[in-house]
Design goal:
Keywords: 4Fe-4S, Iron, Iron-sulfur, Metal-binding. This is Molybdopterin oxidoreductase family protein. Its cofactor is Mo-bis(molybdopterin guanine dinucleotide). Pfam families: Molybdop_Fe4S4 (PF04879), Molybdopterin (PF00384), Molydop_binding (PF01568). This protein has 702 residues and is α/β, with parallel strands linked by helices. It folds into four domains: 58 residues, Single Sheet (N-terminal domain of TfIIb); 197 residues, Rossmann fold (3-Layer(aba) Sandwich), CATH 3.40.50; 192 residues, Dimethylsulfoxide Reductase, domain 2 (3-Layer(aba) Sandwich), CATH 3.40.228; 113 residues, Beta Barrel (Barwin-like endoglucanases). The protein contains 22 helices and 28 strands. The protein has a seven-stranded mixed sheet with strand order 5-4-18-17-16-6-7, sandwiched between helices. A six-stranded mixed barrel has the order 23-27-24-26-25-28. Strands 10-9-8-12-13 form a five-stranded parallel sheet, sandwiched between helices. α2 packs across α18 and α7 runs antiparallel to α10. The longest helix is centred in the N-terminal third of the chain and has 19 residues. The protein is globular, with a radius of gyration of 25 Å. The structure holds iron/sulfur cluster (SF4). The site of iron/sulfur cluster has 14 residues, from α1.
């Protein structure tokens, strides 16, 4: 019967495209005599996704199987690339890195990672930079995703975990504020949690400059001016204060800093806030009363609040709101930073950030350095110091302080603000190595491109937005000569004479070291093992022992600061670094669409997803369209002080008349980050992606 029976390969996996990490089964069926298999995708039950998949998850396998995958290492030759062997590629890397470090010092080489890497790869990348390359320069694209919420959570609560409560608490919340988060398009499988909450009588408030799939569900939509979220949160707090909607016992027993906050709020003027935010005082009052009077409530923020030059303080303002009203640490009451990237949570815990070591340890803390040096079997004084944030690394590349860059799991030319400067910088590098599955916009500039494996081929753990660690097993063999990220790092380390620190046989081997490295840290994974993850539906951190169940709901008794108390802080109303004026009269805000993920390197290579959204666009209000003479569907030039792009106009009342929206998933002439600001938040170094001044005009081809 050989050859007459279909061959069926069932792959239990999870979607790589957002922080829910929905489980799925991909089935590959070879019919007898067929030259290619047929694929089917089924959602698979797990606690977070409850057996749902969105369009991205249903079609994720398409990019993994794409004919555009890089199958061999590529070396630049003129304007193109030639395939070479891994031996040759690794030899080139070893020699070029040693030469450049010999001339310019170790810190002349930088490492740039990504929030979609598995925990194992993220952990190893931090170690690779500090132990193999011995450079202080490492940071990653998660800086643009989570740094504001992470810093705010750490300062307010003493710990940063995306959601302080399990997702199942959402339906218990009687009032929910979704601030700057478009869950319907970015994490679609979470929407039923919110519809169930509404069915249970919850009042839903959405804060967003645009009408979105999420705002359509809202009882109250506050269409805030881009960048004015902190002021709006101040207005909400002021009403709570004026109306006496405070949990005084909670404030007294579990927080610090209320007196200063109270004095600050008392001095604010609600009408002035209404003017700044574009939201009427009546609507601010209505929202505050709904939240303050509800017996339970949750607040969620995402990039709309966080990707601002005051992103850290804007999140702190929303945390003040939660704390003043005592809505945390209880069923149906808490806070959530809705992470975007697939491993946005885990990617930030294991040492990819310039200032951090695994387990959220601090690179400038002597005890933390000593602990990690011991795990890594090096001397503490051999650990490099603190580097700089992602965009600041790009500035150092541009200034040629960094002369070589190794990029893994990221496309910085599209994801960084002020992209023209970033591209100029990358072109100046003496040596650029990019590990990717595809020739991304960044990889096209590389001296060497290293093919890495996809989510169907690469085992590892990822931590979803709840802080739940999930194991993604992978059964497909690597395509072509592609290698796992962790193996690429080990191979380069061997060439640099540091291979003894990187001799791992599997992702699980790395996880075993990660467990020890995280032990006793804020993000403690010590009690989590692959065996447990195979048996259980994910395990929450902190999980200090294998007998621990992990904590789904945080802060029931105390916060993670030494005194057990949360910190309140006065927050100033934001002043934008760049205001609209006669030359640039509109505000640009950026974001995502349902079918695409990050800079689109993967989703643009899924034919089903690409067919739904094959080009970028600018959303503009009919009044703006009339003022600037733009017709629906026409090409529009959008220009800021930093650059210019051409995208198709979409006229809609979903956007404020004073603002335009362009998504972030396309590169080259549609790369919206050619327009965005290089200014960074002073605390967390988040760029202000969400508000800058632009002008628009019909595009006339030259
Ligand atoms: Fe689930 Fe997010 Fe993937 Fe959609 S993109 S299937 S919500 S993990």
């Amino acid at each position: 019967q050989a050859g007459l029976t279909p061959v069926v390969n069932v792959l239990d996996t999870q979607c790589p495209f957002c922080s829910v990490q929905c489980k799925a089964t991909v089935t590959e069926t070879w019919a007898p005599g067929a030259s290619r298999p047929v694929y089917t995708v089924e959602p698979k039950m797990n606690a977070a996704s409850e057996g749902r998949l969105c369009i991205k998850g249903m079609n994720a396998y398409q990019h993994a199987l794409s004919g555009e995958r890089i199958r061999q290492p590529l070396r630049r030759e003129g304007e193109g690339f030639v395939p070479i062997s891994w031996d040759e590629a690794l030899d080139i890397i070893g020699k070029r890195v040693e030469r450049l470090q010999g001339i310019y010092g170790r810190d002349t080489v930088g490492v740039y990672g990504g929030g979609s890497l598995t925990n194992e790869s993220a952990y190893l990348l931090g170690k690779f930079a500090r132990v193999a390359l011995r450079t202080k320069y490492i940071d990653y694209n998660g800086r643009f995703c989570m740094s504001a919420a992470a810093s705010a959570g750490n300062k307010a609560f003493g710990v940063d975990r995306g959601l302080t409560n399990p997702l199942s608490d959402i339906e218990l919340a009687k009032c929910i504020i979704l601030a700057g988060t478009n869950i319907a398009e970015c994490q679609p499988t979470l929407m039923p949690y919110f519809t169930r909450a509404k069915e249970n009588g919850s009042y839903l408030i959405v804060i967003d400059p645009r009408e979105t799939g999420t705002s359509k569900l809202a009882d109250l939509h506050l269409k805030v001016k881009p960048g004015m979220d902190a002021a709006l949160a101040n207005g909400l707090q002021k009403v709570l204060l004026e109306e006496g909607l405070l949990d005084e016992q909670f404030l007294r027993e579990r927080t610090n800093g209320f007196d200063a906050l109270q004095a600050h709020l008392a001095a604010l003027d609600l009408e002035e806030i209404a003017g700044l935010t574009g939201v009427s005082a009546a609507d601010i009052r209505k929202a505050a009363l709904a939240f303050g009077q509800a017996p339970t409530g949750m607040v969620f923020t995402a990039r709309g609040v966080e990707q601002q030059t005051d992103g850290y303080m804007a999140v702190r303002a929303f945390l003040n709101l939660v704390l003043m009203n005592g809505k945390i640490g209880k069923p149906g009451s808490g806070y959530g930073a809705v992470t975007g990237q697939g491993n946005g949570q885990g990617g930030r815990e294991h040492g990819q950030k310039a200032d951090q070591l695994p387990g959220y340890r601090l690179i400038e803390n002597p005890a933390d350095r000593a602990y990690i040096a011991d795990v890594w079997d090096i001397e503490p004084e051999d650990l490099p110091g603190k580097g700089v944030s992602a965009y600041e690394m790009m500035e150092k590349v541009h200034a040629q302080e960094i002369r070589a860059l190794i990029i893994m799991g990221s496309n910085p030319i599209v994801s960084n603000p002020n992209a023209n400067l970033v591209e100029e910088g990358l072109r100046k590098l003496d040596f650029l190595v990019v590990a990717d599955m595809f020739l991304s916009e960044t990889a096209r500039l590389a001296d060497l491109v290293l093919p890495c494996t996809s989510y169907l081929e690469n085992d590892g753990t990822l931590t979803n937005l709840e802080g739940r660690v999930l194991l993604r097993e992978a059964k497909r063999p690597p395509i072509g000569e592609s290698r796992h990220d962790w193996r690429i790092m080990g191979d380069i380390a061997e060439k640099l004479g540091r291979g003894q620190y990187f001799r791992f046989e599997s992702a699980e081997d790395i996880f075993e070291e990660l467990r020890v490295a995280s032990r006793g840290g804020i993000a403690d994974y010590y009690g989590i093992t692959y065996d447990r993850l195979r048996r259980e539906e994910g395990v929450y951190w902190p999980c200090p022992s294998t007998g621990s169940a992990g904590e789904g709901r945080l802060f029931a008794e105390r916060f993670a600061h030494e005194d057990g108390r949360a910190q309140l802080i006065p927050v100033e109303n934001h002043r934008l670094p760049e205001s609209a004026d006669d030359a640039y009269p509109l505000y640009l805000t950026t974001g995502r669409v349902l079918t695409q993920y990050l800079t689109g390197v993967q989703t643009r290579r899924s034919h089903t997803l690409a067919a739904r959204d094959f080009e970028s666009f600018v959303q503009l209000h009919p009044k703006a369209a009339r003022t600037y003479g733009i017709a629906d569907g026409e090409l529009v030039r959008v220009t800021s002080r930093r650059g210019s792009i051409v995208v198709r106009g979409r006229i809609t009342t979903d956007i404020r008349p004073d603002s335009v929206f362009v998504p972030m998933h396309w590169g080259d002439t549609q790369n919206v980050n050619k327009l965005t600001l290089p200014e960074l938040d002073p605390t967390c170094r988040m760029p202000g992606f969400k508000a800058c001044a632009v002008r628009i005009e019909p595009y006339i081809s030259e």
